[in-house]
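Example 3.2
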Amino acid sequence: MALNLEELGIAPAGLDAVRPFAVEGLDVRGRSVAFGPVLQSILDRHDYPEPVSRLLAEAIVLASLLGTSLKFDGRFTLQTQTQGPVSMLVVDFASPDAIRACATFDTGRVEALMKAGKATPEALLGHGHLAMTIDQGQHMQRYQGLVELDGISLEEVARRYFDRSEQIPTEVRLGVGELYTRKEGEGHAKSWTAGGILIQFLPEAPERLRQADIDPGDAPAGTQMHEMEEDDAWVEAKALVDTVQDIELTDPEVSVEMLLFRLFHERGVRLFDPQPLSDKCRCSREKIEGVLSGFSAEEKDEMTVDGQIVVTCEFCNAKYEFDG
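Structure, written as tokens:
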């Protein structure tokens, strides 16, 4: 069955936009995103090694799916700190649409993994933790949740976070790809593409949210874990999302609406207004001046080179020069 958005009176979300949706027949709500120019702009600016760019792209997709759930003006930050070759990833989302990202890595260790053909996201991250921070602004309490990174994927990170911190059954798929196009007389051009889908089981009856224990916690050794069958609706929803292939998330010809229709048309999927995303940094000369004002004269002298203090934003590479 083909999907004709015009006949349904639906404007396609297009690239660089998150589409919230609901599948009421399965008590599921979720969001899906397809990235294009915004992702390309962020990754081009940094020119990281290919595996690092791919990993950062996954983090950007995940942060966009989570950050756009904010119902207030605030910030959502996803940050990893690990012992791996990529020691830190930071993706900062400021509502309603601004996203920025950067990575810190050991070039030698990344190159070694690449030569060995083992530069997987899990190997690049290694062991450490991932923090998800929600900042609701001045005079409001910040909320932070931590997930241990022990060789798991970012998809598994999201599942663990919601299972343990929010007790909300969650399933997520992330995909990153490289699109090669050929222009006459110019050879091949490469561009990044990515997408993702996240669903959560949110039934009205609380007892339907019951899940099997994740681990025995502080129970004595040998304690039998409590087994519990998952809700049939959630089992069906997860099974459908598990069929999503990377090509469906990264092919620009497969729209978010088309993907959702393929998955849930038999159950009925309700689409909500898309939320556009933009490549936008929050740095400014005024903010950096404020930071520098907190340093002593001696510290400023140490920063001064040829009579100038030069500060480069790690997110957007913008350079700000000040007299020393």
